[in-house]
Amino acid sequence: MKVTAVCFTMLLLVFLLLATSVENRDAVFLIVPKRLQFFELESVFFHCEGLDAASQLKGIRNTEAFISACDESSPTLLCAIHRVYATDSGEYWCETAAGEKSISVNITITRGSVVLESPVVPVEEGNNVTLRCRNKTKTSNLTADFYKDGFLIGNSYTGEMSIHKVSRSDEGLYKCKISDTGESPESLLTVTALYRETCSSSCSAIHVFLMLRTVFTIVMVFLLLLLLGLLHF
Q1: Residue 140: phi, psi to the nearest 5?
Q2: pLDDT tens digits along 192-225
Q3: What does UniProt give as the signal peptide span (predicted)?
Q4: Which domain holds residue 124?
Q5: Of the candidates 4, 8, 20, 5, which has an alpha carbon nearest to the alpha carbon of residue 214?
Q6: Do β-strands 44-48 and 56-61 pair in parallel, antiparallel, or remain unpaired?
Q7: What HEC string does the chain produce?
Q8: What pLDDT score does 205 carry?
Q9: CATH number of the domain that residue 43 is part of
Q10: Does residue 163 share a domain with residue 221?
Q11: What pLDDT is attached to residue 6?
Q12: Which residue, 205, 196, 179, is CA-closest to 127?
C-alpha cells in the first residue's frame, strides 16, 4: 500500500508539472509603453500582460538593476514611473517569479525638446510604419527631417514619415530633426520575418509531437513505478 501511495503521488506531481509547463508556454509577456522616447518629467506606464501576480517590472538603468512596484490588482499588471529623468533611461522588461522574461524595451528620456515616436515592439515584414517627430512645446506645423543610421532619408511638413511594407532592410537606428529646435535621440526599429502562414502546419505538428512525447513520458513513468511496486511485493 505504501508503494502504491508513493506511485500515485509521483504520478500526480508529473501531471502538475505538465499543467504548469503548458500554462507558461501560453502566457504572453509584453512591455508596452506608448513610445520609446520621453521628455523629462513625463510619466511612463508599462503593461505586463498575461503574467501571474508574482511578476515584476525589472530593468537596468545606468548599469544598475532595479525592481519597480506594480499594481497587481488585475491580470494586466500596470507599472508606472512618474516624473522620469534622463537617468531613468535604460532597458526594461517583465519577469515572473520563475525567471521567465518578456521582451525587453529600451527607453530614452531626453532633456532636449524633440523626441521620435517609433514602434515599441518589432514590426512584422509587410506592415506599414509611421514615424512621428514631436516638439516639446509645439504640436502642429512641424517641418522635420528623418534619418536612418545617420543618413537623411526624408523630410516632412507634417512631422510624420511613413514606411510602406517594411522589410529587413528597413531595420536600423532612426532619429528626427526639427530646424532651430534640435534633434531626437536614436531609437532602434526592428523588423521580424513574416512566418505565420508558413509556420501554421509545421508548428501544429511540433505541438502535437511535444504533447505526445509528454504523454509517453507519463505512461512510461507510471509503468516503471508500477513495476517497482510489483517487484517490492
Answers
A1: -135, 165
A2: 987 655 455 555 666 666 677 777 777 776 777 7
A3: 1-24
A4: 113-194
A5: 20
A6: unpaired
A7: CHHHHHHHHHHHHHHHHHHHHHHHHHCCCCCCCCCCEEECCCCEEEEECCCCCCCEEEEEECCEEEEECEECCCCCEEEEECCCCHHHCEEEEEECCCCCECCCEEEEEECCCEEEECCCCCEECCCCEEEEEEECCCCCCCCEEEEECCEEEEEECCCEEEECCCCHHHCEEEEEEECCCEECCCEEECEECCCHHHHHHHHHHHHHHHHHHHHHHHHHHHHHHHHHHHHHC
A8: 63
A9: 2.60.40.10
A10: no
A11: 46
A12: 196
Question: Which position has the higher pLDDT, 19 or 120?
Answer: 120
Query: What is the count of structural domains for the chain?
Result: 3
87 with 13: CB under 8 angstroms?
Answer: no
Write down the residue that cell numbers 532592410 correspond to.
169
Q: Cell 527631417 belongs to which residue? A: 145
| Nine-digit cell string for 7 | 506511485
Residue the block writes with cell 520621453 = 38
